[in-house]
Amino acid sequence: APVPVICIDGPTASGKGTLASEVARRLGYHYLDSGSLYRLTGLAARRAGLALENPDEARLSALARQLPVGFAGGHILLGQEDVGEAIRTEAAGMDASRVSALPGVRQALLELQRSCARLPGLVADGRDMGTVIFPHALLKVYLTAGSAQRAERRHKQLISKGIPAKLDGLRADLEARDARDQNRVASPLEPAQDALLLDNTHLTIEDSVDQVLRWWQERQ
Ligand code: C5P
Known about the structure:
Elements: E1 5-9, H1 16-27, E2 30-33, H2 34-47, H3 57-65, E3 69-72, E4 75-78, E5 81-82, H4 90-100, H5 103-114, E6 122-126, H6 129-133, E7 139-144, H7 147-160, H8 167-183, E8 196-199, H9 205-218
Parallel strand pairs: 1-6, 1-7, 2-6, 7-8
Antiparallel strand pairs: 3-4, 4-5
Bound molecules: cytidine-5'-monophosphate.
Cytidine-5'-monophosphate (C5P) binds at residues 12, 34-35, 38-39, 93, 96-97, 100, 126-128, 177, 181.
Protein name: Multifunctional fusion protein
Subunit structure: Monomer.
Binding site for ATP: 10-18
């Protein structure tokens, strides 16, 4: 039987990660945070001294194909180094968005992502899970929230971690990232034709989780 896959796609700071990891936990499924692979590629590129403003696609694709990614006890590793925090900064998010616009980089990470579909099931979050990586997924959710709301959540998150942040700057940054993700030629951010739309602007995390689990049950 095919491995059950649930895709959760949507823009920056829409709450995909929180929703997808909680749905995975409730179902006992594996969880793929595909954005972390683009963040790792961006970080590895910076470390290798490669320019991201005017990127060399061939070199970046080669780097992505050989990415020494590892997971240990919930930590994400680049080689031996725990880069869990380094890939979560806003700058790393911007770098991820830059490298992710390159078709060669996307191609290099494709099989790695598909190989994450294992029994008993997978919940995958990103921008193109439902459109490109898992086109035959049993459930596809496209998650949105207003950009003011998303900026506010991101702001709270950063402040609670002791990272200084300005609301206006955050909103401008996430709108810039959304625009780049939506307008790129390679796998642009857009809902799959068969995706169910979920706007969580006025929903709690628990409400969103329940909605996805209900949709999932309806498909069994
Ligand atoms: O989801 P996250 O914010 O970690 O993703 C960082 C960036 O990686 C996004 O802005 C997007 O440009 C890119 N990305 C992508 N495709 C995915 C996941 C992330 O292009 N499936």
